[in-house]
Amino acid sequence: MIAAAREALAREPEGIRERMRIIEGDGRDTGVHFLPGSFDVVLCHGVLMYVEEPDPLVAGLARMLAPGGLLSLLVRNGDALAMRPGLAGDWAGALAAFDTTAYTNRLGLDVRADRLKDLTATLAGIGAPLRAWYGVRVFTDTAADGAEAPEDLQTLLAVEERAGRTDPYRGVAALLHLCGVRG
């Protein structure tokens, strides 16, 4: 991922490149590189599933937030792990998914998912309580990787956006987008 980020950054205009710094390190050790309260927004998207114990990482990221700053987390929804195998007709896989937060992702890696109630408690405990949350990939999680965009892409995006903010649909989304705000 670091190599991909460097390649992408190299293609950007100089004005962008000079404002960017790629740092490789452990998210729990953010204080090594930044002072507390250094950022108005901290994004952690598609990372927590690779971390065995997410709370220290989330706390480290929250320390970097200025008062009123936003911590944005995008995580695999541990409350909906049975949806993908169930929709694919894998009944044994769906049944097993109800009782776990472990799964194998599309890269073939064994990873873990997070439950909304657990991350809500974590965010409250680190002083960045949950302000809003959304479901992501409610209807499109089973779409093939690299699939061509449908002709009615705008309608599909409108459906996903609405489902992602509407109960009960957001609760069964493949991913959760959580927004915590530093008090």
Automatic annotation (TrEMBL):
Q: Pfam families, per this entry?
A: Methyltransf_11 (PF08241)
Keyword set includes Protease: no
Q: Which InterPro entries match?
A: Methyltransf_11, SAM-dependent_MTases_sf
Q: Which residues form a coiled coil?
A: none
Is Ribosomal protein among this UniProt entry's keywords?
no
Query: What GO molecular functions are on record for this protein?
Result: methyltransferase activity
List the CDD domains. AdoMet_MTases
Which keywords accompany this UniProt record?
A: Methyltransferase, Transferase
Residue ranges of every copy of the Methyltransferase type domain listed in the record: 1-72
Q: Which GO terms describe its biological process?
A: methylation
Q: What is this protein called?
A: Methyltransferase domain-containing protein
Organism in which the protein naturally occurs: Streptomyces thermospinosisporus
